[in-house]
Amino acid sequence: MRVLFLCHNHPGLQPGGTEVFARGLFRELRDRHGVEGMFLAAVTGAHRERRPGTLLQGIGDAPDEALVWLGHFDRFGLAQPDTYGLASLAPAIEALRPDIVHVHHLLQFGVETVDLIRRAAPQARLIFTAHDFFPLCAQEGQLLTTDGRLCAGPSLDRCQACFPGRSGADFVMRELQMRDVLGEFDRILTPSAFARDRYLAAGYPGRQVQVMPNGIAAPPAVPRRAAPDGRRDRFGFFGHVNRFKGGLVLLDASRRLSAEGIVHGVTLHGGAAYQSDAFMAGFSTALEAAPAARHTGPYDAVGLPGLMAQVDWVVVPSIWWENAPLVIQEAFLHRRPVICSEIGGMAEMVRDGVDGLHAPVGDPAGLARVMRRAIETEGLWETLAGNTRPPLTIEAATLRHLDLYRDTLGARAA
Fold first, then answer.
1. How far apart are the C-alpha atoms of 157 and 320, rounded to whole Å?
2. Residue 166, Cβ density class (10 Å: 0-12 exposed, 13-18 middle, ≥19 buried)
3. How many Å apart are CA 178 and CA 26, to the nearest integer?
4. What's the DSSP call for residue 61?
5. Staple 345 to which of 32, 98, 322, 403, CB 3.0 to 4.6 Å?
6. How many CA atoms lie within 13 A of 169 on its CB side?
7. Cα 196 to the center of its chain, rounded Å
8. Record's InterPro entries (predicted)?
9. CA 245, CA 130: separation in Å to the nearest integer?
10. b or e along 108-132 (b: 16 or more beta carbons within 10 Å of the residue's beta carbon)?
11. Considering only CA atoms, which of 187, 215, 216 is closest in space to residue 199?
């Protein structure tokens, strides 16, 4: 079997959950199951400078992983007008002759790439993993309004409220384009039932959309000892620092706990690349106002176990629905209870009062109350930590994907 993976970035340049899982899945297929193929990651000038002579670039020592430099992307329509850049992919795809093309994101590649693949590899079966809601939502795929309210799903009125300068025809055409492009895929996978239901509610056919959980590498879990007085009052945030991930909510909650005299510690681990000056100014102000909190900056997978060893609780305070956050799987791997917002894929993964606690979304006072309960309720940490379930491993996820690929190829043969 030969496979071609497309992802909107490479974990060596941007270690987001989608990138980490997609590359991990590709390598498992290659190393454990003898699958041949190529992992193509799209980049722009923000990640790599354009090299003369070709838009394809190598990365590291892997001969089957490459970057394709694509500029001029239209985020509203998920369109890539750089036809020269896309055309440079055709010879590589034709030479590979993939049986399966698995697209892990349309960002940077654009909807035009799907048509290119169909022409360059007409024999291939196409799989798309909807790691988020970009096909449904032009507002950065967040299903979150510009003023921070949760959105139940696309509609003409709701979408125009976020983009008052665009005509209704723009949204109608966008939706038709997305349906046409995704209709080319044999399967649409979602990492959570919540995400699947959002796509079904938007009108995508149930026979095409199915849940396929992500998996993670499983190094040895790191135990956590209680403080000498038995307190469990160390909270950790792991992830990109931006508006959507809720770091500002966590900092305000910590400020409130300090004002109440509650001894605790909050550590935010994660970079803040590509954020606006206004956001970073607000983040710095919020950090200064929370004396028990600190920001350590970016981290990598190698250092994660050591960082987990320093916290009792992992906090996921995202203000949008999320889908299947990698950080929740990482927390459960290390048997850390999770405090998360009570919505979307987070609430699906974390069982309130069983292996974690739910907090009101976007509500610093509500999060502070839940954090105080976590600190002050005797035996709660031990109960929740004892109920955590090991996450799906990358090995198990690979076997599930391999079965799906074979089933899809079998349907073609039939």
1. 20
2. middle
3. 26
4. T
5. 322
6. 0
7. 15
8. Glyco_trans_4-like_N (IPR028098)
9. 19
10. bbbbbbbebbeebbeebbbbbbbbb
11. 187
DSSP 78-117: TB---HHHHHTTHHHHHHH--SEEEES--TTT-THHHHHH
- Quick check: 262 and 367 in contact, CB under 8 A? no
Strand order across the beta sheet in which 65-69 lies = 56-58, 65-69, 36-43, 2-7, 100-103, 125-129, 187-190, 209-211
d(CA 114, CA 102): 11
> What are the structural domains, with CATH classification, of the chain?
2-215+393-413 (3.40.50.2000), 234-387 (3.40.50.2000)
**Distance between start and end Cα atoms, the chain:** 17
Place of tokens 């892990």: 104
Pairing of strands 313-316, 338-341: parallel
